[in-house]
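step=predict obj=Xylan alpha-1,2-glucuronidase n=663
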Amino acid sequence: LTSYRAWLQYREKDQEKYTKTVAPYLKAVSVTVDNDIIERALDEWTVGLNEMFKQRPAVVRETISEGLAITLDPSLPNESYQLKTTEKRIQLTAKDANGVLYGVFHLLRLLQMEESLQHLSMTEVPKNPVRMINQWDDMNGEVERGYAGESFFYKDYQFIKDRQRIYDYARLLAAAGINAISINNVNVHENETDLIFDRYLMDVKQTSDIFNQFGITLFLSINYAAPMEKGIASADPLDKDVQAFWKARAQAIYQVIPNFGGFLVKADSENRPGPFTYGRNHAEGANMLAEALEPYGGLVIWRCFVYNCKQDWRDRQTDRARAAYDHFMPLDGAFKENVVLQIKNGPMDFQVREPVSPLIGSLENTNHFLEFQIAQEYLGQQKHLVYLVPQWKEVLSFDTYSKGMGTYVKDIVAGEVFKNGHAGIVAVSNVGSDYNWTGHLFAQLNLYGYGRMIWNPELTAEAIALEWVKQTFGNDPFVIKTIMQMVMPSWEIYENYTSPLGIGWMVNISHHYGPNIDGYEYDKWGTYHFADRNGVGVDRTIETGTGFTGQFHKENARVYNDLTRCPDELLLFFHHVPYTHQLHSGKTVIQHIYDTHFRGVEQVKAMIDAWQSLKEAIDPTRYTSVMERLEHQLYMAKEWRDTVNTYFYRKSGINDLHGRTIY
Ligand code: BDP
C-alpha cells in the first residue's frame, strides 16, 4: 500500500510539537461554493487530516476565525490561488475550482513535509496553461513503451470496469498539477477507432467524468484514416465525405461529453496514415479536423514527429534531425487557431542527450506544445534509476535567441513570447498496473517532478526531488540526504555508462534496451554514429554536413557549427571527429569514453551502497524492490561499459591511458 500511495502517503504524525502548531488550522473548513472539483478537494483535505492527525474538520458555510477558509475570486489568473495565514485562519482564495483543488493539495504537501503554516503569504499561478499527460495505452491491454505492467484503462478491447485505479491516478495527477490527459496510444490500431463511436463512447464519458472531478480534461488519439475503417473511400482532408465524417463524429462526441478536450494525432509518422497519402500538407490535414471541433471549442493536437523512416540518409540528404523543422516551418501560420503542434524536446527521439528542437523558437505564428517522455524508453526503461527533471530543466532553460538573448524555451512554450492562444507541455506517461504504478519506485519521482516542474519551471530539480522524498519516505534527515545523493546525479550517471557525447542510440533495435553499438548503424531509421577506425560522430554542420545546425538561430548555430565552440556533451551530435580530438575538458574523445564508462559503473555501485545504508529505515517491500532494480542496473551498466569500451578500443586501436582492462 505504501508504494501505491506514492506522494500522497498522509503518514500519521507523531511529532506532538508540530501537530500543536498546525492544530488551529485543521479545525474547520468553510466554503460557500459547491461543485464536483471542490468536493474532491474537501474529501482530500478530510482524508489527509484524518490520516495524519486523526482530525476531522467540520465543513461549514459561514465565516470562521479558526481553520481553512475557501473563497473564489474571479479576477485572479486561471487556476491560480493565494494562501494567506492570519492568526488562526488560513485563507485560500482561488480563481476557480481547479485553483481550490491545487491550493488544498499545496497545504497537504506542506503538512506532509511538516512545514509551518503560520506565516503563509503566497500566490501560485501555473506557468503553463496546458499541463498534459499522454497515455500510450492500447485497448488490447498493453502499454506501448510501458515499463510498469499492463494498462489499467483497457483489457481485451474493453474498458476495465473497476475504475478505482483511474480515480487514484487522477488524484495523483491533480496533486502534481496536471490538467489534461489523452487516454489512448498515439498509434491507434484497428478497432480502436471505435473509441469515437457508440461502442465505447459511454465508457469514454465515464472515464472523462472521473478525470473532470480532478480538474483534468480528457482527449483521445485518433487514426487519421478512421473514415476508411468506416467504409469511406479515402481519408483525404479535402474530400467532402471525409469532412462530413469528422463533423458527425465531433457532434456525437460532444453530445455525450460536452467538455471533451479534442484529438491528438500522429499522422504520416512511422507508417501511420496521414494527409501525405493524398498529396496534402499537414496544415490541410490538421485544419480539416480543427474545423470539425471548432464549434465545440475542441483542440487538434498534431504531432511533429514526422520523418521518413524508410529512407537511408547516409547520402546526407535527409538527416532525421532536420525532419520536424523541414516539414513544419514552411507551414508556420497556416494552421487554424485550435490546432496545436506537439514538438518533442529534441530533434531525434528522447535520447539521453540531444540539443533542443530548433522548431521551438522558430515557429512564431502557430500554437505549440513541448513534448517530453516520462516513460524511460531510452533511459533505462524504469529498471535504471534516472531522475529526468535535470534533463528537462536544461531544455526549458535553453536560450533560443528567437527574439534576442534571453528568449527561453520555458517562456515560449508557456505561450508568453508569441502570445499563443493555446500553449503548454505534454509528456508520455510512465504508469501501468504495477502495484507501485511505475515499476521502479523512483520513477514515481519523474511523474511527480514533471507535474511540479511544468507548474513552475523556476523550481530547481533539487527542490522538486526534496518534496517528493519527504512526502514519499518521510522526514528523517538521514533518509532524505541519502536518497538525494542517489537521485541528483542519476541522469549524469546513466549518460556516463551509455552512449557518449550526444551521439545517442547504441541500443538494441526495436525494444531499445541494452547496448548494441551498431544496432541501428546499418538500418534505415537514420540514427547513425558513423564510427570507423578514424573517428566517430555525425557531421551536421552547414559546410560539410547535413546543415542541421543552420536550423537554429544564428547565435546557437554558430556555436554548434564550430568544432572549437560546440559543447562537449553534444560534440558527436554535431561533428565527426578523430578519436584523438581534444575536448574542452582537456581529454581526448577516446579517453573520455573510457573514463566515463568506468566511472559510471563505480557510481552505480555507490548508489547501491547508499541504498543499503537505508535498510533499517525503509519498509522491506520498498527497500527490496528498489534494491533488486539497482542490482540489475549495475549488471547492465557493466554490460554497457564493456560493450562501448571494447567497441571503441577495437575501432581506434588506442589504449586506455590508465591501463585498465578493456576486453
Ligand atoms: C518512439 C517510440 C514509438 C512511438 C514513437 C512516437 O519508440 O513507440 O510510437 O516514438 O512518439 O520513441 O510516436
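step=describe
Residues 144-145, 186-187, 266, 270, 305, 349-350, 377 surround beta-D-glucopyranuronic acid (CB under 6 Å).
step=end
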